[in-house]
From TrEMBL:
Presence of the UniProt keyword Signal in the record: yes
One Pfam match: Gly_transporter
Keywords noted in UniProt: Membrane, Signal, Transmembrane, Transmembrane helix
Organism of provenance: Desulfonatronospira thiodismutans ASO3-1
Protein name stated in the entry: Extracellular solute-binding protein family 3
Length: 745
């Protein structure tokens, strides 16, 4: 009995386990199979073919993605119904054939054709198109046609070869009938797409074809075939564009659902937004991709590179440093823009032209500067003639050219920045369009000044460059977004040219007039010049000492020197003035208080020594006989002796400051003492000759020796400062002036 009970219980347990497994299988089948079937039902298949900007492939390799206006509309439409869409590369004819068999579920961008109703449903129109006639330039008679009726009559009377895309429907009813039943004079040649049509016309195998101008204008511009292929200027009627759904796989109920969502997308403006996002960049790229625009854009880049070379000369950068200063303002802003927007390929990698222009300008600038220095060292007279020629003949020309290309750069970079933001569909465009415009035009210059460690970035303070770019970006972006006219190549071209010319004229006018930025923060009392005036009022004694370096008595006052003439000597003294000048500018920008005045005292004493040495050396080296005064032998001889001595002093000073070695400064200290005695001896020697011969030229040279003496005292103070590592005090400067007065007496 117990054994029987155990066996019965065991069999009952097995039966329960079997029932449990069967129930589990049924439950899982009920859950998983509908989900599997749902996934199968939720996938819609279609094909795509190159038809930019409606269908295209963006990116390369693993990052490649099918996109475009029609592709994006399809994705957003079917996403709202819970469907997943896949696109396989096919020709137009293959997609149509797939609709007949049910292998493909839908086709984007189709015109209505009665024969297609046998195998497909037509959605509501979701956009419209126009078609244009493109023909070989040898057919002159086409250019005289003014209406569609004249065109149809022409096609029925002339022997022509017309390219037609296999399975493609065309525009108006009359033209469609003409293509379906062509007269004997027309030969229809089948092709697979617009690109093949273009090649057939260029090769002379076809006379004309019908195409969407949004697609063909871009293809024509890219292929450089605009000289052979002409567009007929007859405005055709708008053609409704539908989605075709296969009757094999899509029900009428689904069609009604899709139509309802399409209508909602149209009413909400989503399709209009997508149309703008994909069509506008296509037209913009045609406009900005033309040769003349690219050439002027390169000239704007060349202007930026030239400014970088001049900065490298002024601040004693090496060859690589000059290349950095030249390339950053030219391409730095565009690189930052592309990185910010996540562009697949940064624009400088598309062509080496940008880098080659920068390299060429840097190398040419280096060669010119070194050759000028060589001439200056060998022949000061020839260098002066070159300076005079540049100043009198070429200076104004170069200045105008630089202003021209600077103005063009801000105009072209602004337009390009907005275009890239539009192409990358940065939303909201009203914000990112102007932002990318100013980043493209100004970002590189700001980067350059950051690399230079320049706290006084002019573009962020006095210049109007960035504000013009922002203003232009706002106007241009709003004009593109809210234009009341139908988008066309002509509209975009003229709008772009208007903006370029407007920004160019505004920037050039501001540069020409020298206007300062009116949007600076603060009032006039925050300007450094105003602070210096306040300093002069608060510290009159120190100001008198500082300003006293710039003048002598009436007979030997230092003459003003043109800024361009100071460049050659300024490089020798930049190591004396660079850091000190930055410190002074920084102090001038701080609030005026006791600490600021103390800092100013410390900086200014050192700075004025170097600046005065430079200015007065120039005043002496540029000394010329007075009006009506003939150079004399004694005067020229004394001037040459002092010129050579001063050169030696300048070279020795440069070496000492560059090395920072105590021995070099000790040698410089001895040299200044030695030349002080030498100048006293020369002055006594030639003063006697001047009195004897009443030599006016020699008298003028003797008066200029006062400046030489002043330079010696300045050098003495500078050497003492470096050897003792102490600050120059106002009292020592006052003592120096007293010593000068004693020697002059």
């Amino acid at each position: 009995m117990p054994a029987l009970t155990i066996n019965s219980a065991y069999r009952a347990l097995q039966s329960c386990r079997l029932c449990f497994l069967i129930c589990l299988f049924v439950v899982l089948s009920g859950i998983l199979y509908p989900a599997f079937a749902q996934n199968q039902a939720h996938e819609l298949r279609s094909g795509w073919y190159p038809d930019e900007p409606y269908q295209m492939q963006a990116g390369t390799g693993t990052a490649a993605e099918v996109t475009g206006l029609d592709i994006q509309i399809a994705r957003e439409l079917f996403e709202q119904t819970g469907h997943r869409v896949t696109f396989e590369p096919m020709s137009w004819a293959e997609i149509l054939e797939g609709l007949k068999t049910g292998e493909t579920d839908f086709l984007m961008g189709a015109y209505y054709e009665e024969a297609r109703e046998e195998f497909a449903y037509f959605s509501k129109p979701y956009r419209t198109e126009r078609n244009e006639i493109y023909y070989h330039k040898s057919i002159d008679k086409l250019s005289s046609l003014n209406s569609v009726q004249e065109l149809l009559q022409f096609l029925q009377s002339e022997e022509l070869r017309i390219a037609v895309i296999e399975g493609h429907a065309y525009g108006s009813e009359e033209f469609r009938k003409l293509m379906q039943d062509p007269p004997p004079n027309l030969e229809l040649i089948t092709s697979q797409g617009y690109e093949e049509n273009l090649h057939l016309v260029v090769e002379g195998r076809v006379d004309l074809f019908v195409a969407n101008p949004i697609i063909m204008d871009r293809l024509t511009a890219r292929s450089q075939a605009s000289g052979l292929v002409q567009k007929l200027g007859i405005k055709s009627q708008e053609i409704p564009v539908h989605i075709l759904f296969s009757k094999k796989s899509i029900s009428r109920g689904q069609l009604e659902e899709f139509n309802s969502i399409l209508q909602d997308m149209q009413e909400q403006g989503r399709i209009s937004t997508l149309h703008r996002d994909f069509v506008l960049p296509a037209y913009l790229s045609i406009t900005t991709g033309q040769t003349w625009f690219a050439v002027l854009n390169l000239l704007g880049i060349a202007a930026f590179c030239t400014s970088g070379v001049l900065l490298a000369r002024k601040e004693r950068y090496n060859l690589f440093g000059a290349l950095v200063l030249a390339t950053l303002p030219a391409i730095g802003g565009g690189v930052l823009r592309d990185l910010f927007l996540g562009v697949d390929q940064v624009f400088v990698l598309e062509t080496p032209a940008y880098f080659l222009v920068a390299i060429a300008i840097v190398l040419a600038g280096f060669a010119i500067i070194r050759y000028y220095d060589f001439i200056h060292d060998r022949s000061g007279t020839l260098a002066k003639k070159i300076d005079a020629f540049i100043e009198n003949r070429l200076g104004s020309v170069f200045d105008r050219l630089f202003k021209f290309f600077d103005a063009w750069a801000v105009a072209s970079f602004t337009v390009i920045g907005v275009g890239v933001a539009l192409e990358m569909r940065a939303e909201p465009l009203w914000l990112w369009g102007p932002a990318m415009a100013v980043l493209t035009s100004s970002g590189g210059v700001i980067l350059r000044d950051i690399v230079r460690a320049d706290f006084n970035i002019e573009m962020l303070k006095q210049d109007t460059y960035a504000e013009i770019s922002i203003l232009g970006g706002i106007i241009y972006t709003c004009a593109l977004m809210y234009t009341p006219y139908e988008i066309s190549l002509g509209l975009i071209f003229y709008l772009t040219m208007f903006m370029v010319l407007l920004l160019f004229a505004l920037r050039f006018f501001i540069l020409w007039k020298g206007y300062m930025n009116p949007f600076q923060f603060g009032d006039i009392y925050t300007h450094p010049d105003t602070r210096l005036q306040q300093f002069r009022e608060k510290e009159p004694h120190l100001w008198k000492v500082v300003s006293g370096y710039y003048t002598e008595d009436d007979e030997s006052r230092a003459a003003p020197v043109h800024r361009s003439r100071l460049e050659e000597m300024h490089n020798r003294f930049l190591y004396l003035t660079g850091e000190l000048k930055e410190s002074l500018d920084q102090v001038a920008a701080e609030p005026l208080n006791e600490k600021t005045i103390n800092n100013y005292r410390q900086c200014n004493a050192r700075l004025e020594i170097a600046i005065s040495l430079e200015n007065n050396l120039y005043a002496f080296l540029e000394q010329k006989p007075g009006k009506g005064m003939q150079p004399s032998v004694d005067g020229s001889e004394l001037q040459q002796l002092m010129h050579e001595s001063l050169r030696t002093m300048i070279d020795t000073t440069a070496m000492a400051v560059e090395t920072g070695d105590v021995m070099d400064f000790t040698m410089l200290e001895g040299l200044t003492s030695q030349y002080r005695q030498r100048f006293d001896h020369l002055r006594d020697k030639y003063r006697g000759r001047q009195k004897e011969h009443d030599d006016a030229h020699l008298k003028a040279v003797l008066q200029s020796t006062h400046k030489v003496e002043r330079i010696i005292y300045l050098l003495s103070d500078y050497v003492k400062l470096r050897l003792d590592k102490k600050e120059i005090r106002a009292g020592s400067a006052t003592n120096r002036k007293a010593q000068q007065a004693h020697v002059l007496k």
